[in-house]
Write a structure and sequence with these properties.
Number of helices: 8
Largest sheet: 4 strands, mixed
Structural class: alpha/beta
Helix content: 25-40%
Mean pLDDT: 86
Strand content: 15-25%
Number of strands: 10
Strand order of the largest sheet: 1-3-2-7
CATH topology of the largest domain: Rossmann fold
CATH class of the largest domain: Alpha Beta
Shape: globular
Low-confidence stretches: 252-270
Order of helices and strands: HEHEHEHHEEHEEHEHEE
Radius of gyration: 21 Å
Amino acid sequence: MAEMMRIPAVWIIQQRGGPSTATVIYSQQEVRLTCLGGNGEGHRIVYSSSSHQDLFDYTIKAFATAWRTRFPTFVLGDGYQGKMLEALTLYNPEDRGVPLPGPEPFMGKPGTPGVDRPPAHLRNTFSIEDELYEALTRNIRDYEDVAPSVVEPEQDACEHAEVILVAHGIVSRAAREVAGTLRARGVRAGCFRPITLRPFPAAALADAAKGAGWLLVVESAYGQLAALERGAEIIRRQRESAQASRPVPTQEGAGAGTGAAVGSEESPGG
């Protein structure tokens, strides 16, 4: 509902293992659910935190992002963080120059609906396929427009690396240490952390991995991050191929050329 009605809500998810209810154990098993769970074609933003400081920082960022984009936003933690103590710095975002968009009402705005302003119409139910298609197309277009300003990776020594470890959340901290140990032993190793799991930084990862012989996905789940990365890469290549084959008018307006392709930062289902 929040995705279709474009309600800027924020959720904090501390993952647990499963199936069933299980317990808050050490897992990253709710990546697929958080990024893609729900009925229909939903669009959302998912940040993956790696520390208690991240949980604080990205909760602030999530509210700002949700209001700015009008897409539901999630901050993903895990069972590791739920069982550990760690120091963090609390601060007033405005003191650090972090812009906080002011909230505005969805309903009851000044003026007369249909006279002084457009009426507020938050719709969540569609009975005709054409209407649903139109609403989804609008959401997809808006999501693709904001994705480049939202997508966020973190790279450590990926340039010229022959081995790149891909990990998110708190597991990325261990992966970064492993990469450092490998470098100390003469192996050119780097670490790539997708901070946004949706939209997934597929173009940034593809660029980082150009010269690498090995791309190792490390996670505390059975292939959920790996599936997300593979799906995002497939979509990126399809869009790159489509853009490259699209005729583009020449500067004089006569004839056609081949447009240069730029990989889209997008996640599966987007």
